[in-house]
Amino acid sequence: MRSLKLIYIVAITLIVVYLVAEYNKPHPTLWKPTLSYNDKIPYGTYIAYRELKQLFPGAEVKGTNRTFYDQFHDTSIVNSNYIIISGDVKFNKYDFRELLKYLEKGNSVFIATNSYPGKFTGLKNVLADTLKIETNLELKSNETSINFTNNKLKRNKDYKFNNGIASGYFSTFDTSRAVVLGKNGSGDPNFISYKFGKGTLFLCANPELFTNYSLLSEQGADYAAKALSYMPVQPVVYWDHFQNGDIEKDMSPLRVFFSNPSLQWAYYLSLGGMLIFILYEMKRRQRIIPIIEPLRNSTVDFVNVVGQVYYEQRNNANIAQKKVVYFLEHLRTVYHLKTNVLDKEFIERLAQKTGIGDTLAGELVMHLHYINGQRVTDDDLIKLNQLIEQFYIKSR
Question: Which residues form the DUF4350 domain (predicted)?
């Protein structure tokens, strides 16, 4: 019995040592440009998001993961600024219509991105098309210089950034309506604005200027603060999470533990202690009760095996393609819709026959096009599944 206790003590000690070593193990720096408000990596926006209260004293800072349409369609949202820092921004006609209403009421929108994708059949990126925007990258050298055009904000010496931080610029834009607020060393604009009613839309071609990597330098912090200072003082500042895929997926109570490293390790240690206790108490104190095996459900086993195969392969594109094929077959069989051309007319017919509404129909078809033309990430696949599930719920 003593030897058994000694084994348990040694096992517990080894587990604790291992967990402590894993916790303190240095992690390699991740240079992926997530632009996520929650990421402390170089190309996250953790610092920018948390410094908004300093940049806008007295304002309430709110994060939002709603779509553009849902956010701007909310008539209760007034007297506010809206900030989007993302690698790409996708606006359909419904989003853009609500954006204009939001701006005309006197609100301001600040968008920092170097890509406006979404030129699909019948579903173009309406923001880029309407404002005649096209972006490009300055790749002549590793270092790029930029500055403001306003003499009150302009530096005597240009801001200089390396590693592509400020390489984006607007190669095309509506010069009759836009005001150039900043340029690079080649004279190309990288920061412009458009007036809509009482509000202003600010567009910056360099989202990396607002990342942790840039803001840790004196000139990076100075440039970001001056760029955002163009927005007026408002009671509320919204920070967009939706465009970066920062959508809260886990709504269980355990998300509190996993969001905090210390609580996460405490959770794991508790599980380890419970496991050791169970192993220690495995000694039977009564006669073994025979187990009657239930009849095996071979159908469930087959589904589990197929699901495991897909999970191991991690072929998101293949899974997305099958979901799209089955979904379109459902539309043809149940609603007798022709699915060979997914254009504006198809969206209207889909909304009318299923009763799901123009918004969901437009967003669903736009995502079907996006899935077919892009490398499918985990977030893209999850978004596709969420939209299809919404369709089935609303079309009942």
Answer: 38-226
Strand partners, 196: 199
Q: How far is Cα of residue 179 from the mean position of the Cα atoms in its chain?
A: 29
Strand order in the sheet with 144-148: 60-64, 236-240, 80-85, 108-112, 199-204, 189-196, 179-184, 144-148, 159-161
Overall fold of domain 46-244: Rossmann fold (3.40.50)
Place of tokens 């089955």: 326
Domain layout of the chain by residue ranges = 1-28+265-281, 46-244, 314-396
List, for residues 203-245, the tens digit of each pLDDT value.
999 999 999 999 999 999 999 999 999 999 999 999 999 888 7
What's the pLDDT tens digit per position in 113-167?
A: 988 775 433 446 788 888 889 999 887 778 899 999 999 999 999 999 998 899 9
- Among residues 101, 58, 54, which one has the least CA distance to residue 234? 58
Q: Are strands 108-112 and 80-85 parallel, antiparallel or unpaired?
A: parallel
